[in-house]
C-alpha cells in the first residue's frame, strides 16, 4: 500500500495594531484573517527497502608445528601450558568472527609418545590453547598428517571432538569426510575444506585419513560447499619450502579454484611468508588468496622461519529484494614472530616488538600485490 500524506496549506495573515497612549491608557486591537485550508493528497514514491548489510571477518594463522624444543619448554607439572605462547596475540584472534589455524603436527597425545621432526606427534594441550586463544576451526591436511599413523589421527580427532573444535582435512571415516564443516557468523555462512600436496611418501591406510590436492577429487566437494553455504574457504598445504613467492603450480591451482567459485584460499607449508593477492574467477568473482602464512608456532630457526602472521579479510553481505551479494573487503595482516620468552617457553609476539627492523620489509613483501593491505601492529 502506498503511503499518502496530506499536507495542509494553512496560511495566516495576522496584523497587529498596537496603540499606545501617553501613559494614560492603552488599547490593543488584533485583526486576523484566515485563508481557506487546502488539502492536497501527495503521493510519495514507494518506500525504497533499505539494503541489509552484515559483515563477518575471517582470520587465519599458518603452521602450528611443534618440535620437541617447543613442547619441552611448555612442560608444567601435570602436562603442557601453551596458553602463555599465545597470550600476546590472542586478543587479535579473539576479535575475528571466524579464526582458522593450520595444526600441522597431529595431536596424538602423550600416551603414544610425543615426537618431533621428522615424524611429529604433539600433546593435546596445544589444541586446548588454540581454542582458548580464539581459534574456531583447525585444518589438518598436511605433509605430516600420517607421521604417526592411524592412532595419532584417531587420537587427534577424538580430542578435537571432545573440546568441540571443528576440523577439516583428515577424517575418521568416509561419513566424517562427507560432512563438510560449516560455520555461520552474522548471518554469513562458510564451508571449510583442506588439502595437502602429499604426505612425505607415506600411503594412507584409508583415503579419508587425509585429503590430497587433486582437482578431480576437490571439485565435487567445492561444488557441494558452494551450494550449501554463502562462502567457501579452502586451505592448501602446498608450495616450495623457504621460497618467498608462490611457484607456478600454486598460482595455477589457486586460479582454478577461483574459477570454481572458491572465495578464500589460505596457503601454508613453505615455512616462510608468501604474499596475498585478490584473484578474479572466470565469472568475475573475487577470490582472496594468501599463498603462505609461514610458521605461527614452531621450533624452526632463523628470522624468516620465525616470522608469520594473522591474515584477515572482511566478508560484506548486502541483501536487497531477497538477493544477497558478497564482497571481500579490508584485507589485513598482523605480522608475528616466534621467540623464546625470558622464562624459556616459546611465545608468539607482534613482529614490531620482537624485530622492529623486519617490520618494514615484511610489510612491503606482504603488500606487494595488494597495496590496500592494512598492516597492523
Ligand atoms: Zn608442511
Can you characterise this structure?
This protein is an alpha/beta fold and 377 residues long. Helix content is 23%, strand content 38%. The chain has two domains: 4-43, no CATH class; 52-375, Metallo-dependent phosphatases (Purple Acid Phosphatase, chain A, domain 2, 4-Layer Sandwich), CATH 3.60.21.10. The protein has eleven helices and 21 strands. Strands 5, 8, 9, 10, 17, 18, 19, 20 and 21 form a nine-stranded mixed sheet that branches. The protein starts with a strand and ends with a strand. Mean pLDDT is 91; it is low at 1-29. Zinc ion binds next to loops. InterPro entries: Capsule_synth_CapA, CW_Biosynth-Accessory, Metallo-depent_PP-like. Residues 57-300 form the Capsule synthesis protein CapA domain. Pfam families: PGA_cap.
The CATH class name of the largest domain reads Alpha Beta
The distinct ligands, each listed once, are: zinc ion
Count of helix runs: 11
Gyration radius, rounded: 30 Å
How would you characterize the largest beta sheet? 9 strands, mixed
**CATH topology name of the largest domain:** Purple Acid Phosphatase, chain A, domain 2
Given the C-alpha coordinates, what overall shape results? Answer: globular
Strand content: 35-45%
> Do you know the CATH architecture of the largest domain?
4-Layer Sandwich
CATH superfamily of the largest domain: Metallo-dependent phosphatases
Helix content: 10-25%
Q: Roughly what is the average pLDDT, rounded to an integer?
A: 91
- Low-pLDDT parts are 1-29
Q: What's the domain count?
A: 2
DSSP E strands, number: 21
Spatial separation of the terminal alpha carbons: 53 Å
Supply the helix-strand structural class. alpha/beta
Amino acid at each position: 500500500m502506498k503511503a499518502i500524506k496530506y499536507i495542509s496549506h494553512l496560511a495566516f495573515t495576522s496584523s497587529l495594531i498596537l496603540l499606545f497612549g501617553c501613559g494614560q491608557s492603552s488599547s490593543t486591537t488584533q485583526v486576523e484573517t484566515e485563508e481557506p485550508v487546502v488539502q492536497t493528497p501527495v503521493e510519495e514514491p514507494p518506500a525504497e527497502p533499505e539494503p541489509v548489510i552484515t559483515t563477518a571477518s575471517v582470520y587465519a594463522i599458518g603452521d602450528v608445528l611443534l618440535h620437541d624444543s617447543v613442547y619441552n619448554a611448555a612442560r608444567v607439572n601435570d602436562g603442557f601450558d601453551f596458553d602463555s605462547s599465545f597470550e600476546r596475540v590472542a586478543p587479535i584472534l579473539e576479535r575475528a568472527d571466524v579464526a582458522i589455524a593450520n595444526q600441522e603436527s597431529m595431536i596424538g597425545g602423550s600416551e603414544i609418545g610425543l615426537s618431533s621432526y621428522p615424524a611429529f606427534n604433539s600433546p593435546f594441550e596445544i589444541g586446548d590453547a588454540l581454542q582458548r586463544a580464539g581459534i574456531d576451526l583447525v585444518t589438518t591436511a598436511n605433509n605430516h598428517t600420517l607421521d604417526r599413523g592411524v592412532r595419532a589421527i584417531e587420537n587427534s580427532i577424538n580430542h578435537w571432538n571432545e573440546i568441540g573444535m571443528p576440523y577439516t582435512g583428515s577424517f575418521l571415516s568416509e561419513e566424517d569426510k562427507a560432512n563438510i564443516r560449516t560455520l555461520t557468523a552474522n548471518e554469513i555462512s562458510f564451508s571449510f575444506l583442506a588439502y595437502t600436496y602429499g604426505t612425505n611418501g607415506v600411503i594412507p591406510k584409508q583415503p579419508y585419513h587425509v585429503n590430497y590436492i587433486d582437482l578431480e577429487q576437490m571439485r565435487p566437494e567445492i561444488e557441494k560447499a558452494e551450494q550449501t553455504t554463502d562462502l567457501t574457504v579452502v586451505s592448501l598445504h602446498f608450495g616450495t619450502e623457504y621460497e618467498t613467492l608462490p611457484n607456478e603450480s600454486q598460482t595455477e591451482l589457486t586460479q582454478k579454484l577461483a574459477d570454481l567459485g572458491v572465495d578464500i584460499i589460505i596457503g601454508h607449508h613453505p615455512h616462510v611468508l608468501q604474499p596475498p593477492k585478490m584473484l578474479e574467477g572466470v565469472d568475475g568473482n573475487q577470490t582472496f588468496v594468501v599463498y603462505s602464512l609461514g610458521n605461527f608456532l614452531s621450533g624452526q630457526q632463523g628470522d624468516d622461519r620465525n616470522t608469520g602472521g594473522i591474515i584477515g579479510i572482511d566478508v560484506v553481505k548486502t541483501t536487497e529484494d531477497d538477493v544477497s551479494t558478497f564482497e571481500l573487503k579490508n584485507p589485513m595482516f598482523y605480522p608475528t614472530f616466534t621467540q623464546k620468552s625470558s622464562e624459556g617457553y616459546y611465545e608468539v609476539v607482534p613482529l614490531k616488538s620482537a624485530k622492529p627492523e623486519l617490520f618494514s620489509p615484511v610489510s612491503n613483501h606482504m603488500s606487494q600485490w595488494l597495496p590496500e593491505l592494512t598492516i597492523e601492529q
